[in-house]
């Protein structure tokens, strides 16, 4: 399994494309600049199967409709954020000077965590709330990486001062879900560089002293 990253939009939000040996792919968080996402897919000769969202904040959905319409694929989101895509007050775009961001409703909704299959892709969905109520992380155990959205960063954690954020809940998600994935697990975050569980356990100042 291969993964490709593009850091896009005004706040540098990471969009990931995960591809298998069949040249099929899943698109995670089409954040902005849809033409760059589509150019990557064309360059690699990939066939998109679905779009998966870690959560519904505006900076993770800016190119959602553009990419969805281009490839005609389903969109997956946690059910707790079902109405966030079309509501700037919930997706936080109303709180920023860039203007309101909206997208059409997702087509499929996660309502329980666990093993999932889309086409020939198998992965696990972890409910990791705190940054938002419906934040999820996507674990590709055999390939030893997790797409964490804005839950855990290299040297930091997701902000919790936006609507629906909860600091203690976020720390609990990290400790009970993320840190149990194994020290070698590669963390592909929503912003910034990749990291590992081991690195964050040893060095992340936001995790020291919790519980």
Average pLDDT level: 96
Total beta strands: 14
Radius of gyration: 16 Å
Main sheet specs = 6 strands, mixed
Compose a concise summary of this entry.
The chain is of the alpha/beta class and 211 residues long. It has a single domain (2-203), classed as Metallo-beta-lactamase, Chain A. The protein has 4 helices and 14 strands.
Description:
- The protein is an alpha/beta fold and 211 residues long.
- The chain has a single domain (2-203), classed as Metallo-beta-lactamase, Chain A, CATH 3.60.15.10.
- The protein has four helices and 14 strands.
- The strands form three sheets. The chain has a six-stranded mixed sheet with strand order 1-2-3-4-5-6, covered by helices on one side. Strands 7-8-9-10-13-14 form a six-stranded mixed sheet.
- One of its GO terms (molecular function) is hydrolase activity.
Give structural attributes.
zinc, 14 strands, six-stranded mixed beta sheet, MBL_Glyoxalase_II, 211 residues, metal ion binding, Metallo-beta-lactamase, Chain A, metal-binding, alpha/beta, RibonucZ/Hydroxyglut_hydro
């Amino acid at each position: 399994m291969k993964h490709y990253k593009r850091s896009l939009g005004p706040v540098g939000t990471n969009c990931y494309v995960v591809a298998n040996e069949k040249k099929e792919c899943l698109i995670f968080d089409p954040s902005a600049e849809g033409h760059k996402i589509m150019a990557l897919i064309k360059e690699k000769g990939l066939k998109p199967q679905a779009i998966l969202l870690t959560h519904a904040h505006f900076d993770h959905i800016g190119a959602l409709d553009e990419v969805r319409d281009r490839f005609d694929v389903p969109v997956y989101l946690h059910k707790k954020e079902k109405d966030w895509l079309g509501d700037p007050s919930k997706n936080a775009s109303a709180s920023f000077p860039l203007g309101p961001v909206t997208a059409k409703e997702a087509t499929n909704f996660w309502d329980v965590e666990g093993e999932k299959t889309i086409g020939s892709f198998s992965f696990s969905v972890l409910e990791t709330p705190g940054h938002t109520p419906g934040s999820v992380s996507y674990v590709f155990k055999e390939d030893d990486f997790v797409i964490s959205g804005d839950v855990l960063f290299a040297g930091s954690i997701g902000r919790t001062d936006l609507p629906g954020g909860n600091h203690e809940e976020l720390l609990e998600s990290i400790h009970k879900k993320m840190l149990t994935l194994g020290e070698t697990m590669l963390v592909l975050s929503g912003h910034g560089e990749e990291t590992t569980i081991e690195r964050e356990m040893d060095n992340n100042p936001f995790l020291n002293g919790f519980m």
